[in-house]
Amino acid sequence: MTKTIYGYEPTHPGEVIKDEIEYRNISQRKLAEQLDMSYKALNDLLNGRRTLTANTAMMLEAALDIPADSLLRLQMKYNMQRSANDPSFMERLDRIRRFAAML
Q: Which pTM value belongs to this model?
């Protein structure tokens, strides 16, 4: 579980897509076929194990009419919060900031 520094848990875009296809009663296999992608790749995306790409977001927009830019913003926010909760990455940022302050 990711620590919340923004007061909320990040939402992976796969969660939104998964909710939408369940609401519409579309099977993952059927959607994967429609998108011409493997079932495993789609399932990994829907379960937050794969990052949403711009191409996939645009294909999902064509198939489900969910705006690609909204899905990509969710992915960006998810990625940023995950990075912000990574102690080693935050230490690296601190080192960069200290170095930049000396310039």
A: 0.85
